[in-house]
Amino acid sequence: MTIQFMKLIIITLLILGAYTKTKEEWKSRVVYQLLTDRFATSKGASTSCNLGNYCGGDYKGMIEHLDYVKNMGFDAIWISPVIDNYDGGYHGYWARNMYKTNSNFGSDQDLKNLVAAAHAKDIWVMVDVVANHMGNTNENYSQNSPFNDAAHYHSYCDISGNDFNTHNLYNIERCRLAGLADLNQDNEWVANELIKWINWLITDFKFDGIRIDTVMMVKTGFWKRFTEASGVYSVGEVFDGDVNFLKQFVGPIDALLNYPLFYTLRDVFLHQKDMNEIESYYSRISNAIGKGNLPFMGNFNDNHDNARFLSDNVGAEQQELAIENLRGAAISSYAFSATKKLQFKALTAFCLTSIGIPMIYYGTEQLYAGGDDPKNREVLWGNLNEKSEMYLFIKEINAARRATNAGAQEQIQRYADSEIYAFTRGNLFAAFSSKYDRQTTKTITFHPYADGTTLCNIFYATDCVKVTNKSFPLYLNYGE
User: Fold this and answer.
1) Which of 216, 196, 198 has its CA nearest to residue 207?
2) Is the Cβ–Cβ distance between 260 and 280 less than 8 Å?
3) What count of Cα atoms within 13 Å lies in the side-chain half-sphere of residue 272?
4) CA 232 centroid distance within chain
5) Can you give the C-alpha Rg of the chain in angstroms?
């Protein structure tokens, strides 16, 4: 028989009437993270805009281009916060009226139509939510709804860099992030209103999951109530790589965005550290949060809070230039080496195949290379190319993941040393290396395949090996 073989080198609570999905149901999904204002437009908006303000993306545009997401093999999208924001809040994190949607993206009905259209294509919708702060940076709360009184907020103080570095939760939970008005969840009325709000949001718009912003800024006891009231899978943002700090948030929230993996993969693939680092990562995180929680963690390759991988100039010579997109309009990108592209492919492939829920940032498939916020929040419309190299690369991996039901399978380490890290998930075999200057050959003896099984590279159908005498050869060639 022939088993698909990946040779990747260098490369509930049910709320009455709600459309709810649990973490167990989510663990086989593959998520495409997009910024609502940047993905697609129905308004004919220009591809050239001020990335620090609204550019014109909307729900109707997203509906028109759901097949772009579906055809790449994704079956879930993570969209920006949907509620009304203060002026300039194109990203959604400057809330003003919690019970009003952001009219820049469309009407309430447009949003409901998006969710319905996505569900019709078996695409689940995760909505980004904020319960830590509102969008004003002063002490005038009159525009905020329903939190329009000073008693609803902590006294004014700012979180310092040292607070984050030392994990000073006393200040982190009570002071302001970037000056944004910090809600006081110790006020029972505030807590109850937020819980009522999340119940309304999920029930009314039929979202399938929530991504929770600024998790470390609020006490975990509140998050337990909040996530239970949502009735759906929850994944939280704690912008930190320390597994022993992160572990306190797993439980009150189903899972976290996997910053420990993010930093590990950048070290390994970009900075060419030994592959043993991945084995060490799995040991650390399993001991901290429990192996049983790994399938629900959000494995991301890039996101809106970090400079894109391809923009990081460590290990590669780059210069900024304009690349003409399919319609002839200039988009901001970078020149990067062939090695840098292989590194990014490896990192992305690892996120797509390893244990956890893949959450791939929009623009990955077009090799976007924006730097720090807001340069990493580029416009995508006009460049929705389903034939690009990276689009097809992701599509191939997602097809193999789906064909083998890898997302529902246990991950078993099959080989690990300084040069190679390999694992299986059911019948899917994945092997990675960060050694770009050599041909690497290994013999795999610990595997689930019977003698006579043929294993084929999903990218090159004629590149096959046969299991003989309970082993098979693995060849990783110079980052091919």
Assistant:
1) 198
2) no
3) 11
4) 17
5) 22
The letter for the amino acid at 245 is F
pLDDT tens across 325-373, in order? 333 333 344 457 888 999 999 999 999 999 999 999 999 999 999 999 9
CA distance 385 to 428: 28
pTM over 0.90: yes
Q: Tell me which residues of the chain have a pLDDT lower than 50.
A: 1-2, 5-18, 313-334
Q: Where are the alpha helices (DSSP H) in 44-83?
A: 59-64, 66-71
- The residue among 214, 247, 211, 210 whose CA lies nearest residue 231 is 210
Between the alpha carbon of residue 182 and those of residues 143, 194, 252, the distances in Å are 15, 13, 20
Read off φ and ψ for residue 293, nearest 5 degrees.
Answer: -95, -10
Classify 126 as helix, strand or coil: strand
Phi, psi for residue 416 in degrees, rounded to 5:
-155, 125
Q: Reduce the DSSP state of residue 464 to 3 states and report it.
A: strand
Query: Can you state the percent helix, strand and coil of the chain, rounding each to 5?
Result: 35, 20, 45
Could you list the active site residues?
213, 237
**397-402 long-range CB contacts below 8 Å, 24 or more apart?**
397/6, 397/73, 397/349, 397/352, 397/353, 397/458, 398/30, 398/72, 398/73, 398/74, 398/352, 399/73, 399/458, 400/4, 400/6, 400/428, 400/458, 401/30, 401/73, 401/352, 401/353, 401/428, 402/73
Are the C-beta atoms of 57 and 36 separated by less than 8 Å?
Answer: yes
277 — alpha (psi -120 to 50), left (phi > 0) or beta?
A: alpha
Q: In the 8-state DSSP scheme, what is residue 156?
A: S
Specify the pairing of strand 472-477 against strand 439-444.
Answer: antiparallel
Neighbour tally for 453: CB within 10 Å = 18
Give the residue among 51, 138, 53, 143 at the shortest CA–CA distance from 95.
143
Residue 152 tokens, joined: 């609803």
For residue 379, what is the DSSP state?
Answer: -
| Type of residue numbered 260 | P
Kindly list the distances between the CA atom of residue 235 and the CA atoms of 205, 210, 215, 231, in Å, as whole numbers in the listed order.
Answer: 19, 6, 10, 13
pLDDT score for 438: 84
Half-sphere exposure of 219 (CA within 13 A, CB side): 11
Gap between the Cα atoms of 226 and 231, Å rounded: 9
In angstroms, the CA 246 to CA 266 distance is 19
**Predicted local distance difference test score (pLDDT) of residue 158:** 98
Q: Where are the alpha helices (DSSP H) in 15-121?
A: 23-26, 36-39, 59-64, 66-71, 108-120
Rounded to an integer, what distance in angstroms lies between the CA atom of residue 444 and that of residue 11? 19
How far lies 41's CA from each of 69, 152, 211, 446, 479, in Å? 15, 37, 23, 50, 38
